[in-house]
Write a structure and sequence with these properties.
Chain A: This is Lipoprotein. The complex is a heterodimer of chains A (291) and B (99). With 291 residues, chain A is mainly α. Chain A has one domain. Chain A has 12 helices and no strands. Chain A is elongated and about 80 Å long. Chain B has one domain. Helices cover 82% and strands 0% of the residues of chain B. In chain B, helix 1 runs antiparallel to helix 2, helix 1 runs parallel beside helix 3 and helix 3 runs antiparallel to helix 4. The longest helix of chain B has 27 residues. Classes of the chains: A mainly alpha (291), B mainly alpha (99).
Chain lengths: 291, 99
Amino acid sequence: MRIATRTLCLLALILPLTACTPEKAEALLAAVKAFEAKSSEALDAYEAMFRDYGAVAATSQDELFQGAYAAARQGQAGSFDDAVGNVGARDGVGIQGGIAREFGDIRAAYAALGSAYDSLPQGSVLGARYVSCGRNAVARLTWQLVNFADDVNQQPLYPSALRQRFAEFKRSAAQGDQGLARRDFDAFAGGVAAYEARHAAAQRLTLAAVEQGRRLDAMLAHYDDVSLSNLLGAIQAGFAFAGTLKGVDASAAASRLQAMKTDMEGSAYWQRVGALPLADIAACAAPGKEQ
Amino acid sequence: MADDQDREFVRLAEAALDALFDQYAAAGPAERWQLKPAITKATEEMTQARLALFKEGVLTTPEDLDALRQLKRDIDHAADVQAGVLAAVKLAAMLGVFA
């Protein structure tokens, strides 16, 4: 098996773009997987934020009954569908199912990238040829992460229940009920603080993934010339960077991402990458369809 | 990628949703029962629109912005719960285009 691997790797060496040793290929695969893992953490954070953005505050069974009863007394209970719209809470349908599907699509591109390199350490000639194809994919996904952070940073995803809580506060205050207004306000302020912590965490996780992506992109640009120790060093640096992230405050993470976005938008390379269709990543992972 | 017009669209749509939440908070039990399904639907469509913006960017037109501004005025001046329900349904329909 080992001989077969070396033979294949030797064969791969003959081809352009394939300065391949199994160790180097393993290191590259590890770097790709690290990028995939960090991106996944950032995507988890965004998905959770979207879930809260899309969820209206829960209504208690008693409140629902009071509403239904009062409406029915006035002959205004509405249709069966309206009633289900009030009391129904099935998982996996409606907006929560929609969010899960959208993020499933987003994650599929990162998974396709990871799988494109799986066969590289076994000396796969095919895998070696994906080095160039995969670089486009890494760059496109890195670009996407920068834009995810920018989108949420420009217009934060405050949970809908928090917006409702503020509306409740205004109502309590208008009625002159200071005790209730105080409780609503405290809950609102606590919710804002909790959101801000999650927003900051998402920015830091994105920064870690983007740093890894840019490092990987640079490595892939010079894969033939990069030494094994350089590859390993870059992976190490990625882990060390993630370890220091807790110390990076949210505005620092956000401003570093913003600076990267400005930098990337001014670069012909990144502009070309930004225009690439995401579908190309799946094509890259499919044998015989690499670019 | 989202441009300034898309950002303005999100800002206006969120303001319209906030106005509906205000109306809901001020409503009695029977009105809340009538408003909630439409407001939930509008919130869901808002979320789909934000997801579309997050993923690829959506392209809004100046007419979209004008329609949203008008809708916000309608919600602010909604005379009764039926007007509120109608406004929430309209908001959901407007946002549904981008989902």
